[in-house]
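Figure 6 in text form: structure in, sequence out.
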């Protein structure tokens, strides 16, 4: 087995650890080949800025340097990957050289389509192992839980999508936590259950994975209400969650007061709470009391029932001085502040 094959195998075996990636970067550097040296630097840069807060002074410079390398060398790097031909469909996409589709130095195709289980289970091993981890969105997860947990390629998934409108096995959380195939999950998405409270299940899931590097938590039309939101903003796992979205969770002003009283400080300075229809101006009044608002740059409050008083409160709030984009209603965004807006950490510069 060649040194490179062994090094790549270590990355595939431990996809959420930085050390195998940095060791591979050192090997690439030592070859002296310009494309390899560039890839080594790209891997190090992405691993570094994924550990930084979005408002850290080094975040944007490192991301900008990584983007420049990717634009120039991506074609060369792709050819070195094992089973690259299995991902030819992705390689032909025009957006493949954007940073959002590379994670800690390697491609991460975002296949967030509603793939059917039969399609998922029929994917060949060569395609499942073409990149360190894969991400798929499937419907009716819990009604097919037995099949999912027995799937031979489950350890290739980095995203757990739970369609909560399914028929629920009472012990689904315990079974997910006990499954060795779930060892590489670092992103959690719960969807489609507006009538049943899922606070307890979500808290149990996070408690079971509290020592894991969870980087994304997205809730969409999942009822947790104010109590669930308070639980989330005070949960230790949230300190490492780099993308948090809570849409249609029945959040109202009391839940926002829980945020104001918390020490929650999102690593990426954005807050996504769209479509919590009863939040209203009272929710904004609670939000502007939150000390963490002072570092939020992008605030998403579309369809939250906020009127002129709420907008005026945000505009006149000193803690909102760093906002560069405020999204309200369903019509777009309002630019905030007197200075030119800096680029978004994940957008083109």
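Output sequence:
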């Amino acid at each position: 087995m060649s040194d490179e094959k062994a090094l790549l195998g270590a990355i595939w075996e431990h996809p959420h650890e930085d050390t195998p990636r940095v060791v591979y970067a050192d090997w690439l550097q030592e070859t002296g080949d310009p494309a390899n040296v560039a890839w080594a630097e790209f891997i190090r840069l992405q691993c570094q800025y994924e550990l930084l807060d979005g408002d850290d002074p080094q975040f944007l410079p490192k991301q900008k340097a990584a983007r420049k390398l990717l634009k120039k060398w991506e074609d060369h790097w792709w050819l070195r990957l094992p089973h690259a031909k299995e991902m030819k469909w992705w390689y032909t996409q025009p957006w493949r050289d954007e940073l959002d589709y590379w994670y800690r130095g390697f491609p991460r195709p975002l296949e967030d389509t509603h793939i059917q289980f039969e399609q998922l289970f029929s994917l060949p091993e060569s395609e499942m192992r073409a990149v360190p981890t894969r991400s798929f969105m499937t419907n009716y997860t819990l009604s097919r839980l037995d099949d999912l947990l027995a799937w031979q390629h489950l350890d290739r998934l980095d995203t757990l999508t739970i369609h909560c409108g399914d028929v629920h096995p009472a012990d689904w959380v315990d079974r997910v936590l006990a499954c060795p195939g779930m060892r590489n999950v670092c992103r959690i998405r719960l969807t489609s259950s507006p009538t049943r409270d899922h606070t307890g299940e979500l808290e149990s899931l996070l408690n079971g994975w509290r020592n894991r590097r969870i980087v994304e938590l997205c809730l969409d039309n999942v009822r947790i209400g104010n109590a669930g939101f308070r639980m989330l903003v005070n949960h230790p796992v949230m300190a490492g969650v780099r993308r948090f979205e809570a849409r249609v969770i029945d959040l109202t002003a009391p839940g926002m007061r829980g945020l104001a009283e918390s020490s929650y400080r999102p690593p990426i300075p954005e807050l996504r709470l769209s479509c919590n229809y009863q939040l209203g101006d009272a929710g904004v009044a609670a939000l502007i009391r939150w000390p963490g608002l002072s570092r939020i740059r992008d605030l998403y409050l579309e369809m939250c029932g906020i009127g002129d008083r709420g907008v005026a409160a945000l505009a006149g709030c000193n803690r909102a001085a760093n906002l560069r984009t405020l999204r309200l209603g369903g019509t777009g965004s309002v630019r905030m502040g007197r200075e030119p807006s800096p680029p978004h950490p994940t957008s083109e510069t």
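Caption detail: The radius of gyration is 21 Å.
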